[in-house]
């Protein structure tokens, strides 16, 4: 299958960074930071080499490749920002359905995944039955696998295509193309990381229409 390669505006996307011959199997209570420290590389070095969707979310027993050397050892831009001061009440274009991951809360989904207010989700009249019935507080942990509707701005759209990742995180792409990491995660349900390449769906050029 052919995947359109967008011209990357992000300096870290798809860099040719070598892996060592070492792999590591994630254990209970591991974090990307503790694993990176064990091998004297940066947390984002490790996350990008393994093309993680969210560097803060690791599955026990998944296997990670270890970089041959530290590339950006003090860089943390591969992580999403939890913007509790978000003011937007909708996202441009879509997708507008987000599937809940382990540990997700309304606050995390709104402020970190989509950079919108928590109230915009909780007051959304077209919200899913699960959220409407639960009526959660913003810090209540939600049920994995259920869905949340994300309000999309009226008269807005994104361009959608495929993009083959070999190095980087979903946040790196979101930063480079001015979309939210939640939009990327919604398009690629269930994706967490890959050992080599990740042909994923992406959105870009999200804007209000004339």
Automatic annotation (TrEMBL):
InterPro entries listed in its UniProt record: LysM (IPR018392), LysM_dom_sf (IPR036779)
Gene3D superfamilies membership: LysM domain
LysM domain ranges (all copies): 22-66, 96-150
Database matches in PANTHER family: LYSM DOMAIN-CONTAINING GPI-ANCHORED PROTEIN 2 (PTHR33734), MEMBRANE-BOUND LYTIC MUREIN TRANSGLYCOSYLASE D (PTHR33734:SF22)
Name of the protein this chain belongs to: LysM domain-containing protein
Organism name: Penicillium angulare
């Amino acid at each position: 299958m052919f995947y359109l390669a967008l011209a990357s505006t992000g300096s870290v996307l798809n860099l040719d960074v070598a892996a060592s011959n070492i792999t590591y199997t994630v254990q209970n209570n591991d974090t990307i930071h503790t694993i990176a420290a064990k091998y004297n590389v940066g947390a984002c070095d490790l996350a990008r080499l393994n093309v993680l969707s969210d560097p803060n979310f690791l599955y026990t027993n998944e296997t990670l490749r270890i970089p041959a050397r530290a590339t950006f050892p003090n860089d943390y831009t591969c992580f999403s920002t939890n913007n509790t001061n978000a003011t937007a009440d909708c996202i441009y274009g879509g997708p507008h359905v987000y599937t809940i991951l382990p540990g997700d809360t309304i606050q995390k989904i709104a402020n970190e995944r989509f950079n919108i207010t928590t109230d915009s989700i909780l007051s959304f009249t077209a919200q899913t039955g699960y959220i409407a019935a639960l009526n959660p507080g913003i810090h209540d942990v939600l049920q994995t696998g259920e869905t949340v509707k994300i309000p999309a701005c009226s008269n807005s759209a994104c361009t959608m295509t495929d993009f083959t990742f070999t190095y980087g995180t979903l946040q790196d792409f979101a930063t480079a193309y001015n979309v939210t990491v939640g939009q990327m995660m919604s398009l690629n349900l269930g994706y967490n990381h890959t050992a080599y390449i990740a042909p994923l769906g992406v959105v870009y050029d999200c804007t209000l229409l004339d």
